[in-house]
Amino acid sequence: MTDHTQPQQPYYPPRPPYEPTRPITTEPGTTVWPSGSGGGFTPPPAEPAYAAAGPVPAGPVSRRRVKRGVGLMAAVAIAAAAIGGGTATLVQQLTSDAPATTASSVVSGTNVSASSTGTVAGVAAAVSPSIVEISASSTSGESTGSGVIITGDGEIVTNNHVISGASEITVRTSDGKTYRADVVGKDPDKDLALIKLRNASGLKAATLGDSSKVRVGDEVVAIGSPEGLTGTVTSGIVSALDRDVTVAKDTEGSDSGQGQGQGQQQWDPRQGWPFEFGGQQFNGDTGSSKTTYKALQTDASLNPGNSGGALINMNGEIIGINSAMYSPSSSSGSTAGSVGLGFAIPVNTLKADLDALRSGGGS
């Protein structure tokens, strides 16, 4: 019997339940992964590669990259919100065409350095041209005081005790010009007087304020000619209101230099005008002829020669006419400097009396 050897069959592994996905090659450099009912993985499309050289093409791809950058910045903004507003503002500037608004830009206010209003320097610059030095000559000598220009043609308000009994009045303005002046009217009861310059025009008139609005503690500036030092500026506050100040009610002396009471010739504004307060006398005897008025008290430095000058608020408005000061005497009998006790006639008293002064009242 002949043995027959069965030829060995090749081994074929079992087929998988689906046909493996095979890449389909089309053009060189492009690979397509098919998918269908047989299954298979479809990877996300990749962005096309650009050549190293040449500009980045504009179009949808560029916009997509910008949006992706915005998304990144938005994520940074969320983190910045927990850290502080500064980084968030930076993000806003980078992601928005509109300018960012910082916290400081929404605060309203006034730049103090942009205006001199409300400063002593600003008040002095604005009002000094309206303050003058008054020299009053009489048979007994010459005294010096101050005055306030209230009209451009040369009406000037001062204290009665500055010009009372004077035979000649000379006024010097802040620019150095000198004028002769005449008395228009006087009111010894209020210690006020009105004089008028001869041949004057174009002067800067002061603004009269409202003394009823003055409060204790308000800042004030005083301008005058203490000891003949024209245009001296001092500052302080309103220390008190409605002080009953009593001063000599002076009248013109006769040719012999004698008048009613103590007489003008005995008192010199440069030596401190005598006044009374609280039953006490200061700077000498006020005499038998006297008057009392309500005054503003200030600690702005006033010295002999400030009489008739201006007490000014920080808006540059005249609120008082400086009229009295306490000046303690030294052992030699001469007056010492200011100790911060000055008094001014309220400007509302002046305004109420102005018509009478212009009509020559009291003269």
Helix share bin: 10-25%
Strand content: 25-35%
Uncertain runs are: 76-91, 101-114, 251-267
Write the element-wise H/E pattern from the N-terminal end onward: EEHHHEEEHEEEEEEEEEEEEH
Oligomer: single chain
* Class derived from helix and strand content: alpha+beta
Average pLDDT, to the nearest integer?
74
Number of strands: 17
The strand line-up of the biggest sheet is 3-4-5-8-7-6
Question: What features would you highlight for this structure?
Answer:
6-stranded antiparallel β-barrel, 17 strands, alpha+beta, about 15% helix, 5 helices, about 375 residues
Provide a compact summary of the structure:
The chain is an alpha+beta fold and about 375 residues long. It has 5 helices and 17 strands.
Structural features, described:
The chain is an alpha+beta fold and 363 residues long. Helices cover 16% and strands 29% of the residues. A six-stranded antiparallel β-barrel has the order 3-4-5-8-7-6.
